[in-house]
Design brief:
The protein has nine helices and eight strands. The protein is of the alpha/beta class and 214 residues long. It has an eight-stranded mixed beta sheet with strand order 1-4-3-2-5-6-8-7, sandwiched between helices.
């Protein structure tokens, strides 16, 4: 294990009330994440939260919403936790997104943020895309009946692949922006800041879960 990763793995232990990094400890809160926050406020999650700029600002601006940031890399999770500044409505899960079904129960989440995911451009890798059918089926399961997903990406091909995937798998497009301009409602991520400096277009979509008829 690289020394930097090993150091981060040890440092995370100092944030045990903020960072959940043990797989079994994370799994035990399935359907019970409201107990971690001590309230029944809506729960929003960011998948692939990186160094936490986006999710920390979200939590700061919305104290009546609980946030869970999911990031597999210890170094990034640690960096994000250091930005917390005593916010009590945000926790970090240092774990792979492949475990989402083990982490959250049916209808437990109200909103999912997917910011600048890896586009996995090669056709043989399309199942790895976070907006592929397998992942979307999981989002359907864990989202509430009025749950939404917000997607941001700089990759045009991934964006339209994602729209097609969501529509095909019981999501409706609520908002579609082909060149997202910055405004007071848009929180810029680390990647987004770099793309904007290069005048690269940002694509945005908000998608609503459609409840299947019984």
């Amino acid at each position: 294990m690289p020394r930097k990763k090993l150091i981060a793995k040890e440092k995370i232990k100092e944030y045990k009330n903020i960072i959940f990094s043990d797989k079994n400890s994370i799994f035990k809160y399935k359907t019970k994440w409201h107990t971690v926050f001590g309230n029944n406020n809506p729960i929003h999650i960011e998948i692939g939260s990186g160094k936490g700029k986006f999710i920390v600002e979200k939590a700061d601006k919305n104290p009546d919403i609980n946030y869970l940031a999911i990031e597999i890399k210890e170094e990034r999770t640690l960096s994000a936790a250091k930005k917390l500044n005593n916010l009590i409505n945000l926790k970090f899960l240092c774990i792979s997104i492949n475990y989402l079904e083990n982490i959250f129960g049916k209808n437990e989440i109200d909103k999912i943020y997917i910011n600048f995911p890896d586009p996995w451009p090669k056709k043989r890798h399309k199942k790895r895309r976070m907006t592929s059918k397998g992942f979307i089926e999981t989002y359907q399961e864990i989202l509430s009946d009025t749950g939404t997903i917000e997607l941001k990406t700089d990759n045009k091909l991934l964006f339209f692949f994602s729209l097609y995937s969501f529509i095909k798998n019981n999501f409706d497009i609520q908002t579609l922006v082909l060149d997202l301009k910055n405004d007071s409602n848009n929180i810029i991520t680390e990647f987004e800041k770099k793309f904007r400096q290069k005048n690269i277009k940002i694509y945005f979509a908000k998608l609503l879960k459609l409840v299947k008829s019984k």
